Amino acid sequence: MSLAQQQELESKYVMGTFARKPVEFVSGNGMTLTDDKGKQYLDFIGGIGVISLGHCAPALVKTLQEQTAKLMHVSNYYYIEHRGEVAEKLSNILGGTTDSGKPIEWKTFFSNSGAESNECAIKLARLYAKRFGNGGSTIVTITNSFHGRTLAPLAATAQPLKQEAFKPLPGGFVDVPQNDVAALEAAFANHDVCAVILEVVQGESGVHPCSQEYLEAVRRLTSENKALMICDEVQCGMYRCGVPFAFQHYGITPDIVAMAKGIAGGVPMGACAARAEVADAFGPGDHGTTFGGSCLAIAAANCVLDELGREGEIERIDAAGEHLAERLATLPHVKEVRGLGLMRARIQRDCLHRRLLRALDDHDKLASWRIFRVAGDRFAERGAHDLLMELRQLPAEAYAPVCPEGIGKVLECGKQLVGRFIEDHRPALLLQTSQMLLPAFLVDGQKTLEAESARGKPRNRQRRNDRARTGNRADGNVCLCAQANQILSGV
Protein backbone atom coordinates (compact mmCIF):
# COMPACT_ATOMS: atom_id res chain seq x y z
CA MET A 1 0.00 0.00 0.00
CA SER A 2 1.41 3.39 -0.99
CA LEU A 3 2.09 6.31 1.33
CA ALA A 4 -0.75 8.24 -0.29
CA GLN A 5 -3.16 5.40 0.43
CA GLN A 6 -1.99 5.20 4.04
CA GLN A 7 -2.48 8.93 4.43
CA GLU A 8 -5.98 8.75 2.99
CA LEU A 9 -6.98 5.88 5.30
CA GLU A 10 -5.54 7.54 8.39
CA SER A 11 -7.18 10.85 7.62
CA LYS A 12 -10.51 9.04 7.46
CA TYR A 13 -10.22 6.51 10.29
CA VAL A 14 -7.45 7.65 12.70
CA MET A 15 -7.88 10.47 15.23
CA GLY A 16 -5.82 13.48 14.22
CA THR A 17 -3.67 13.80 17.34
CA PHE A 18 -0.38 13.81 15.42
CA ALA A 19 0.84 15.98 12.55
CA ARG A 20 2.67 13.17 10.81
CA LYS A 21 5.52 13.76 8.38
CA PRO A 22 5.03 12.52 4.81
CA VAL A 23 7.02 9.31 5.05
CA GLU A 24 6.18 5.65 5.69
CA PHE A 25 8.88 3.62 7.43
CA VAL A 26 8.91 -0.10 6.75
CA SER A 27 12.15 -1.39 8.29
CA GLY A 28 15.02 -0.43 10.54
CA ASN A 29 18.48 -1.56 11.55
CA GLY A 30 20.52 0.08 14.30
CA MET A 31 20.22 3.81 13.76
CA THR A 32 18.97 3.54 10.18
CA LEU A 33 15.33 3.64 9.06
CA THR A 34 14.16 2.69 5.56
CA ASP A 35 10.98 4.01 3.97
CA ASP A 36 8.63 2.32 1.51
CA LYS A 37 10.67 3.63 -1.43
CA GLY A 38 13.96 2.26 -0.09
CA LYS A 39 15.31 5.65 1.02
CA GLN A 40 17.34 5.53 4.23
CA TYR A 41 17.37 7.99 7.12
CA LEU A 42 19.50 8.46 10.20
CA ASP A 43 17.06 8.21 13.11
CA PHE A 44 17.78 10.76 15.82
CA ILE A 45 14.34 10.58 17.41
CA GLY A 46 14.41 6.86 18.31
CA GLY A 47 10.67 6.57 18.80
CA ILE A 48 10.95 9.53 21.22
CA GLY A 49 13.62 7.98 23.37
CA VAL A 50 12.35 4.39 23.18
CA ILE A 51 14.74 2.49 20.91
CA SER A 52 17.51 2.14 23.49
CA LEU A 53 19.36 -0.70 21.71
CA GLY A 54 18.75 0.47 18.14
CA HIS A 55 16.17 -0.76 15.67
CA CYS A 56 15.80 -4.54 15.54
CA ALA A 57 18.67 -5.23 17.92
CA PRO A 58 19.57 -8.93 17.40
CA ALA A 59 19.44 -9.85 21.10
CA LEU A 60 16.01 -8.25 21.55
CA VAL A 61 14.60 -9.72 18.33
CA LYS A 62 15.73 -13.20 19.40
CA THR A 63 14.20 -12.75 22.87
CA LEU A 64 10.85 -11.64 21.46
CA GLN A 65 10.76 -14.42 18.87
CA GLU A 66 11.33 -17.02 21.58
CA GLN A 67 8.77 -15.48 23.95
CA THR A 68 6.01 -15.11 21.34
CA ALA A 69 6.39 -18.79 20.55
CA LYS A 70 5.85 -19.65 24.23
CA LEU A 71 3.37 -17.23 25.84
CA MET A 72 2.40 -13.60 25.15
CA HIS A 73 -0.09 -12.69 27.86
CA VAL A 74 -1.90 -13.95 30.91
CA SER A 75 -3.71 -12.08 33.64
CA ASN A 76 -1.79 -10.43 36.46
CA TYR A 77 -3.60 -12.84 38.77
CA TYR A 78 -0.84 -15.35 37.95
CA TYR A 79 2.93 -15.59 38.13
CA ILE A 80 5.02 -15.55 34.95
CA GLU A 81 8.67 -16.08 34.14
CA HIS A 82 11.18 -13.26 34.69
CA ARG A 83 8.90 -10.66 36.34
CA GLY A 84 10.61 -11.09 39.70
CA GLU A 85 14.02 -11.10 38.00
CA VAL A 86 13.34 -7.80 36.24
CA ALA A 87 12.10 -6.23 39.50
CA GLU A 88 15.25 -7.44 41.25
CA LYS A 89 17.47 -6.00 38.51
CA LEU A 90 15.69 -2.66 38.83
CA SER A 91 16.14 -2.71 42.59
CA ASN A 92 19.85 -3.37 42.17
CA ILE A 93 20.48 -0.58 39.67
CA LEU A 94 18.31 1.92 41.60
CA GLY A 95 20.59 1.28 44.57
CA GLY A 96 20.99 3.63 47.50
CA THR A 97 21.47 3.01 51.21
CA THR A 98 19.36 3.73 54.27
CA ASP A 99 20.45 6.04 57.09
CA SER A 100 21.78 2.96 58.87
CA GLY A 101 23.89 2.02 55.85
CA LYS A 102 21.80 -0.90 54.65
CA PRO A 103 21.02 -1.29 50.93
CA ILE A 104 17.60 0.09 49.95
CA GLU A 105 15.15 -2.50 48.67
CA TRP A 106 12.80 -1.35 45.91
CA LYS A 107 9.47 -2.78 44.80
CA THR A 108 8.08 -2.20 41.29
CA PHE A 109 4.66 -1.86 39.70
CA PHE A 110 4.79 -2.61 35.97
CA SER A 111 2.75 -0.41 33.64
CA ASN A 112 2.57 0.29 29.91
CA SER A 113 3.78 3.90 29.57
CA GLY A 114 5.35 6.89 31.27
CA ALA A 115 1.98 8.49 31.96
CA GLU A 116 0.80 5.32 33.72
CA SER A 117 4.02 5.15 35.73
CA ASN A 118 3.56 8.73 36.91
CA GLU A 119 -0.13 8.07 37.62
CA CYS A 120 0.96 5.19 39.85
CA ALA A 121 3.53 7.43 41.58
CA ILE A 122 0.92 10.12 42.26
CA LYS A 123 -1.59 7.64 43.69
CA LEU A 124 1.06 5.94 45.81
CA ALA A 125 2.32 9.25 47.22
CA ARG A 126 -1.14 10.34 48.32
CA LEU A 127 -2.04 6.94 49.73
CA TYR A 128 1.24 6.73 51.65
CA ALA A 129 0.64 10.22 53.11
CA LYS A 130 -2.78 9.16 54.38
CA ARG A 131 -1.70 5.81 55.81
CA PHE A 132 1.85 6.43 57.04
CA GLY A 133 2.96 9.98 56.21
CA ASN A 134 1.95 13.53 57.01
CA GLY A 135 -1.64 13.32 55.77
CA GLY A 136 -1.06 15.93 53.07
CA SER A 137 -2.38 15.78 49.52
CA THR A 138 -0.63 18.56 47.59
CA ILE A 139 2.04 17.56 45.10
CA VAL A 140 4.65 20.15 44.12
CA THR A 141 5.64 20.10 40.45
CA ILE A 142 8.19 22.09 38.45
CA THR A 143 7.33 24.82 35.94
CA ASN A 144 7.63 23.65 32.30
CA SER A 145 7.65 20.01 33.38
CA PHE A 146 6.05 17.20 31.42
CA HIS A 147 4.65 14.06 33.07
CA GLY A 148 2.13 12.64 30.59
CA ARG A 149 -1.15 13.12 28.75
CA THR A 150 -3.65 11.40 31.04
CA LEU A 151 -5.50 13.71 33.40
CA ALA A 152 -3.49 13.45 36.64
CA PRO A 153 -0.06 13.58 34.94
CA LEU A 154 -1.38 16.41 32.75
CA ALA A 155 -2.42 18.28 35.90
CA ALA A 156 1.13 17.77 37.17
CA THR A 157 2.53 19.05 33.85
CA ALA A 158 3.07 22.74 34.53
CA GLN A 159 2.43 23.96 30.97
CA PRO A 160 -0.81 25.97 30.61
CA LEU A 161 -0.97 25.55 26.84
CA LYS A 162 -1.25 21.78 27.21
CA GLN A 163 -3.78 22.01 30.03
CA GLU A 164 -6.16 24.73 28.85
CA ALA A 165 -8.43 22.68 26.60
CA PHE A 166 -8.95 19.92 29.17
CA LYS A 167 -9.95 21.87 32.25
CA PRO A 168 -11.19 21.21 34.84
CA LEU A 169 -8.20 19.05 35.74
CA PRO A 170 -7.67 17.11 38.97
CA GLY A 171 -6.59 19.44 41.76
CA GLY A 172 -3.89 19.22 44.39
CA PHE A 173 -0.90 20.36 42.31
CA VAL A 174 1.18 23.52 42.67
CA ASP A 175 4.23 24.35 40.54
CA VAL A 176 7.42 26.22 41.36
CA PRO A 177 10.29 27.31 39.07
CA GLN A 178 13.10 24.86 38.50
CA ASN A 179 16.18 25.44 40.68
CA ASP A 180 14.41 28.08 42.82
CA VAL A 181 14.99 26.88 46.38
CA ALA A 182 13.15 29.84 47.96
CA ALA A 183 10.00 29.10 45.94
CA LEU A 184 10.23 25.46 46.92
CA GLU A 185 10.51 26.34 50.60
CA ALA A 186 7.51 28.66 50.26
CA ALA A 187 5.45 25.84 48.74
CA PHE A 188 6.16 23.67 51.76
CA ALA A 189 5.31 26.55 54.10
CA ASN A 190 1.98 27.30 52.41
CA HIS A 191 0.64 23.87 51.41
CA ASP A 192 0.08 20.43 52.91
CA VAL A 193 2.73 18.84 50.67
CA CYS A 194 2.79 15.06 50.41
CA ALA A 195 5.31 14.84 47.55
CA VAL A 196 7.49 16.65 45.03
CA ILE A 197 7.59 15.26 41.50
CA LEU A 198 10.33 16.38 39.12
CA GLU A 199 12.36 15.44 36.08
CA VAL A 200 16.03 15.44 37.04
CA VAL A 201 16.68 16.63 33.50
CA GLN A 202 13.63 18.28 31.98
CA GLY A 203 13.30 16.95 28.44
CA GLU A 204 10.50 18.74 26.65
CA SER A 205 11.33 22.17 28.06
CA GLY A 206 14.74 22.09 26.38
CA VAL A 207 17.01 19.68 28.32
CA HIS A 208 17.32 21.63 31.57
CA PRO A 209 19.11 19.70 34.36
CA CYS A 210 18.26 20.40 37.97
CA SER A 211 21.04 21.95 40.00
CA GLN A 212 22.82 20.09 42.78
CA GLU A 213 21.59 22.64 45.33
CA TYR A 214 18.00 22.25 44.20
CA LEU A 215 17.87 18.45 44.34
CA GLU A 216 19.52 18.49 47.76
CA ALA A 217 16.87 20.99 48.90
CA VAL A 218 14.07 18.77 47.57
CA ARG A 219 15.51 15.78 49.41
CA ARG A 220 15.95 17.78 52.63
CA LEU A 221 12.48 19.36 52.60
CA THR A 222 10.64 16.14 51.76
CA SER A 223 12.47 14.26 54.51
CA GLU A 224 11.88 16.99 57.10
CA ASN A 225 8.16 17.14 56.27
CA LYS A 226 7.56 13.38 55.96
CA ALA A 227 6.77 13.88 52.26
CA LEU A 228 8.07 11.86 49.32
CA MET A 229 10.49 12.72 46.53
CA ILE A 230 9.39 11.40 43.13
CA CYS A 231 11.83 11.37 40.22
CA ASP A 232 10.23 11.13 36.78
CA GLU A 233 13.00 9.30 34.91
CA VAL A 234 10.80 8.35 31.95
CA GLN A 235 13.00 10.27 29.52
CA CYS A 236 16.27 10.83 31.34
CA GLY A 237 16.51 7.35 32.87
CA MET A 238 17.54 3.93 31.55
CA TYR A 239 21.22 4.91 31.11
CA ARG A 240 20.38 7.87 28.83
CA CYS A 241 22.43 10.17 31.04
CA GLY A 242 25.22 7.61 31.55
CA VAL A 243 24.35 6.17 34.95
CA PRO A 244 21.20 4.01 35.12
CA PHE A 245 19.15 6.94 36.48
CA ALA A 246 19.93 10.65 36.25
CA PHE A 247 19.43 11.25 39.99
CA GLN A 248 22.53 9.12 40.59
CA HIS A 249 24.69 11.96 39.23
CA TYR A 250 23.71 14.01 42.28
CA GLY A 251 24.33 11.66 45.19
CA ILE A 252 20.71 11.68 46.38
CA THR A 253 18.12 8.90 46.43
CA PRO A 254 14.40 9.56 45.90
CA ASP A 255 11.49 7.58 47.34
CA ILE A 256 9.68 6.80 44.06
CA VAL A 257 11.03 6.54 40.51
CA ALA A 258 8.88 6.49 37.37
CA MET A 259 10.33 4.99 34.20
CA ALA A 260 9.26 3.88 30.71
CA LYS A 261 10.42 4.67 27.13
CA GLY A 262 13.79 2.89 26.78
CA ILE A 263 13.14 0.20 29.39
CA ALA A 264 11.99 -2.41 26.85
CA GLY A 265 13.60 -1.20 23.65
CA GLY A 266 10.38 -0.62 21.70
CA VAL A 267 7.86 -2.89 23.41
CA PRO A 268 5.28 -0.81 25.37
CA MET A 269 6.48 -0.89 28.96
CA GLY A 270 6.61 1.30 32.04
CA ALA A 271 7.50 0.87 35.68
CA CYS A 272 7.03 2.69 38.96
CA ALA A 273 9.54 1.67 41.62
CA ALA A 274 9.38 2.74 45.26
CA ARG A 275 11.31 2.06 48.41
CA ALA A 276 9.81 -1.05 49.96
CA GLU A 277 8.38 0.77 52.99
CA VAL A 278 6.64 3.23 50.65
CA ALA A 279 5.48 0.58 48.18
CA ASP A 280 3.87 -1.37 51.02
CA ALA A 281 1.19 1.33 51.25
CA PHE A 282 -0.37 -0.41 48.25
CA GLY A 283 -2.46 -3.50 48.92
CA PRO A 284 -4.41 -5.77 46.56
CA GLY A 285 -7.02 -3.72 44.72
CA ASP A 286 -5.42 -0.31 45.36
CA HIS A 287 -3.96 -0.19 41.87
CA GLY A 288 -3.89 -2.45 38.83
CA THR A 289 -3.41 -2.95 35.11
CA THR A 290 -4.49 -5.42 32.43
CA PHE A 291 -1.44 -5.38 30.18
CA GLY A 292 1.28 -4.02 32.47
CA GLY A 293 4.09 -6.48 33.06
CA SER A 294 2.96 -8.82 30.28
CA CYS A 295 5.07 -11.78 29.24
CA LEU A 296 6.34 -9.96 26.14
CA ALA A 297 7.14 -6.70 27.94
CA ILE A 298 8.91 -8.46 30.80
CA ALA A 299 11.00 -10.54 28.39
CA ALA A 300 11.96 -7.43 26.46
CA ALA A 301 12.88 -5.47 29.59
CA ASN A 302 14.92 -8.39 30.90
CA CYS A 303 16.94 -8.38 27.68
CA VAL A 304 17.38 -4.59 27.54
CA LEU A 305 18.55 -4.39 31.16
CA ASP A 306 21.12 -7.10 30.50
CA GLU A 307 22.40 -5.37 27.37
CA LEU A 308 22.59 -1.90 28.93
CA GLY A 309 24.15 -3.29 32.08
CA ARG A 310 27.13 -4.87 30.33
CA GLU A 311 30.56 -4.04 31.70
CA GLY A 312 31.91 -0.79 30.26
CA GLU A 313 28.54 0.46 28.99
CA ILE A 314 28.36 3.43 31.37
CA GLU A 315 31.87 4.51 30.40
CA ARG A 316 31.00 4.21 26.71
CA ILE A 317 27.88 6.36 27.16
CA ASP A 318 29.84 8.98 29.10
CA ALA A 319 32.53 9.12 26.42
CA ALA A 320 29.97 9.34 23.61
CA GLY A 321 28.07 12.06 25.46
CA GLU A 322 31.19 14.16 25.94
CA HIS A 323 32.13 13.69 22.29
CA LEU A 324 28.62 14.71 21.23
CA ALA A 325 28.71 17.83 23.41
CA GLU A 326 32.13 18.84 22.12
CA ARG A 327 31.16 18.42 18.47
CA LEU A 328 27.81 20.19 18.87
CA ALA A 329 29.65 23.14 20.40
CA THR A 330 31.68 23.52 17.18
CA LEU A 331 28.60 23.93 14.95
CA PRO A 332 27.84 27.38 13.57
CA HIS A 333 25.46 29.59 15.58
CA VAL A 334 25.67 27.40 18.72
CA LYS A 335 25.75 29.43 21.91
CA GLU A 336 25.48 26.68 24.52
CA VAL A 337 25.31 22.88 24.83
CA ARG A 338 23.71 21.47 27.96
CA GLY A 339 22.56 18.14 29.35
CA LEU A 340 23.98 14.92 30.77
CA GLY A 341 25.36 11.85 29.02
CA LEU A 342 23.55 11.30 25.76
CA MET A 343 20.69 13.67 26.56
CA ARG A 344 21.88 16.96 25.09
CA ALA A 345 20.53 20.22 23.69
CA ARG A 346 22.18 22.96 21.68
CA ILE A 347 21.12 26.59 21.98
CA GLN A 348 21.24 28.79 18.87
CA ARG A 349 22.99 32.17 19.03
CA ASP A 350 20.65 33.61 16.40
CA CYS A 351 17.34 32.63 17.96
CA LEU A 352 14.16 31.57 16.23
CA HIS A 353 12.45 34.75 17.36
CA ARG A 354 14.77 36.89 15.26
CA ARG A 355 14.41 34.67 12.23
CA LEU A 356 10.65 34.73 12.60
CA LEU A 357 10.67 38.53 12.84
CA ARG A 358 12.71 38.77 9.64
CA ALA A 359 10.38 36.34 7.91
CA LEU A 360 7.35 38.28 9.10
CA ASP A 361 8.83 41.58 7.92
CA ASP A 362 9.57 40.00 4.53
CA HIS A 363 6.03 38.54 4.39
CA ASP A 364 7.73 35.18 3.87
CA LYS A 365 4.66 33.06 4.51
CA LEU A 366 6.23 29.62 4.15
CA ALA A 367 9.16 30.44 6.44
CA SER A 368 6.85 32.04 9.03
CA TRP A 369 4.57 29.04 9.05
CA ARG A 370 7.45 26.59 9.45
CA ILE A 371 9.05 28.53 12.29
CA PHE A 372 5.72 28.66 14.13
CA ARG A 373 5.50 24.89 13.74
CA VAL A 374 8.91 24.48 15.41
CA ALA A 375 8.79 27.23 18.00
CA GLY A 376 5.13 27.55 18.98
CA ASP A 377 5.30 25.65 22.26
CA ARG A 378 8.54 27.40 23.23
CA PHE A 379 6.88 30.80 22.81
CA ALA A 380 3.93 29.61 24.88
CA GLU A 381 6.11 28.35 27.70
CA ARG A 382 7.54 31.83 28.05
CA GLY A 383 4.25 33.65 28.46
CA ALA A 384 2.68 33.94 25.02
CA HIS A 385 -0.11 31.61 26.01
CA ASP A 386 -2.87 33.99 24.96
CA LEU A 387 -1.47 34.51 21.47
CA LEU A 388 -0.77 30.84 20.90
CA MET A 389 -4.27 29.87 22.02
CA GLU A 390 -5.65 32.43 19.56
CA LEU A 391 -3.60 30.93 16.77
CA ARG A 392 -4.54 27.37 17.69
CA GLN A 393 -8.22 28.22 17.48
CA LEU A 394 -7.82 28.94 13.78
CA PRO A 395 -8.95 26.12 11.47
CA ALA A 396 -6.16 23.86 10.24
CA GLU A 397 -6.38 25.20 6.70
CA ALA A 398 -5.56 28.68 7.98
CA TYR A 399 -1.97 27.57 8.52
CA ALA A 400 -1.52 26.54 4.91
CA PRO A 401 0.73 28.96 3.00
CA VAL A 402 -1.97 29.26 0.32
CA CYS A 403 -4.53 30.78 2.70
CA PRO A 404 -4.06 34.59 2.77
CA GLU A 405 -6.59 35.16 5.57
CA GLY A 406 -5.00 32.59 7.85
CA ILE A 407 -1.47 33.77 7.17
CA GLY A 408 -2.59 37.32 7.84
CA LYS A 409 -3.68 36.27 11.31
CA VAL A 410 -0.43 34.38 11.85
CA LEU A 411 1.57 37.45 10.79
CA GLU A 412 -0.42 39.75 13.07
CA CYS A 413 -0.12 37.55 16.16
CA GLY A 414 3.45 36.65 15.30
CA LYS A 415 4.64 40.24 15.32
CA GLN A 416 3.04 40.81 18.72
CA LEU A 417 4.59 37.62 20.03
CA VAL A 418 8.08 38.31 18.73
CA GLY A 419 8.01 41.91 19.89
CA ARG A 420 7.22 40.68 23.38
CA PHE A 421 10.09 38.24 23.67
CA ILE A 422 12.76 38.90 21.08
CA GLU A 423 15.33 40.33 23.49
CA ASP A 424 14.98 37.93 26.39
CA HIS A 425 14.42 34.37 25.26
CA ARG A 426 16.26 31.97 23.03
CA PRO A 427 14.40 28.65 22.61
CA ALA A 428 16.41 25.49 22.17
CA LEU A 429 16.57 23.18 19.21
CA LEU A 430 16.71 19.84 20.99
CA LEU A 431 19.41 17.44 19.91
CA GLN A 432 18.90 14.43 22.14
CA THR A 433 20.77 11.39 20.98
CA SER A 434 18.34 8.52 20.39
CA GLN A 435 15.54 11.09 20.60
CA MET A 436 16.64 14.12 18.58
CA LEU A 437 13.56 16.28 18.45
CA LEU A 438 13.40 18.03 15.07
CA PRO A 439 9.63 18.12 14.62
CA ALA A 440 9.32 20.21 11.47
CA PHE A 441 12.39 18.91 9.70
CA LEU A 442 12.62 15.19 10.43
CA VAL A 443 11.77 14.06 6.93
CA ASP A 444 10.89 16.96 4.66
CA GLY A 445 13.87 19.19 5.36
CA GLN A 446 15.59 18.45 2.07
CA LYS A 447 12.36 19.27 0.22
CA THR A 448 12.28 22.59 2.07
CA LEU A 449 15.87 23.34 1.10
CA GLU A 450 15.13 22.61 -2.53
CA ALA A 451 11.89 24.63 -2.51
CA GLU A 452 13.53 27.63 -0.92
CA SER A 453 16.51 27.38 -3.27
CA ALA A 454 14.09 27.44 -6.17
CA ARG A 455 12.83 30.81 -4.94
CA GLY A 456 16.32 32.13 -5.68
CA LYS A 457 16.83 34.19 -2.56
CA PRO A 458 20.46 35.35 -2.06
CA ARG A 459 20.76 33.75 1.38
CA ASN A 460 20.39 30.29 -0.16
CA ARG A 461 23.87 30.58 -1.67
CA GLN A 462 25.30 30.71 1.83
CA ARG A 463 23.14 27.75 2.85
CA ARG A 464 24.46 25.73 -0.08
CA ASN A 465 28.02 26.60 0.98
CA ASP A 466 27.22 25.48 4.52
CA ARG A 467 25.82 22.24 3.12
CA ALA A 468 29.01 21.61 1.18
CA ARG A 469 31.20 22.21 4.22
CA THR A 470 29.24 19.73 6.32
CA GLY A 471 29.33 17.07 3.63
CA ASN A 472 25.61 16.84 2.97
CA ARG A 473 24.53 15.42 -0.36
CA ALA A 474 21.96 16.94 -2.65
CA ASP A 475 20.03 13.67 -2.92
CA GLY A 476 18.69 14.08 0.61
CA ASN A 477 20.60 11.21 2.28
CA VAL A 478 21.88 13.56 4.96
CA CYS A 479 22.65 13.73 8.64
CA LEU A 480 19.55 15.33 10.08
CA CYS A 481 21.31 17.38 12.73
CA ALA A 482 23.45 19.14 10.11
CA GLN A 483 20.43 19.42 7.83
CA ALA A 484 18.33 21.14 10.48
CA ASN A 485 21.19 23.46 11.32
CA GLN A 486 21.42 24.54 7.68
CA ILE A 487 17.69 25.09 7.36
CA LEU A 488 17.38 27.12 10.54
CA SER A 489 20.54 29.15 9.96
CA GLY A 490 19.23 30.23 6.58
CA VAL A 491 15.58 31.04 7.40
SSE topology sketch:
Blueprint (H helix, E strand, L loop, with lengths): L2 H11 L11 E5 L2 E4 L4 E3 L3 H4 L8 H11 L14 H12 L11 E6 L2 H18 L6 E5 L8 H6 L3 H4 L9 E4 L4 H10 L2 E6 L2 E2 L5 E2 L2 H13 L3 E5 L23 E4 L10 E6 H4 L15 H14 L4 H17 L4 E7 L2 E6 L3 H10 L3 H17 L3 H8 L11 H18 L6 E3 L14 H10 L4 H11 L10 H11 L1
Parallel strand pairs: 5-6, 5-7, 7-10, 10-11
Antiparallel strand pairs: 1-2, 2-3, 4-12, 8-9, 11-12, 13-14, 14-15
Description of the molecule:
With 491 residues, the protein is of the alpha/beta class. Helices cover 43% and strands 14% of the residues. The strands form four sheets. The protein has a seven-stranded mixed beta sheet, with helices on both faces. The protein has a three-stranded antiparallel beta sheet with strand order 1-2-3, with no helix packed on it. Strands 13-14-15 form a three-stranded antiparallel beta sheet, covered by helices on one side. A hairpin with a 4-residue loop joins strand 2 and strand 3 (40-42). The radius of gyration is 23 Å and the shape is globular. The chain starts with a helix and ends with a helix. 44% of the residues are buried. The model is unreliable at 376-385, 394-404 and 418-491 (pLDDT under 50).
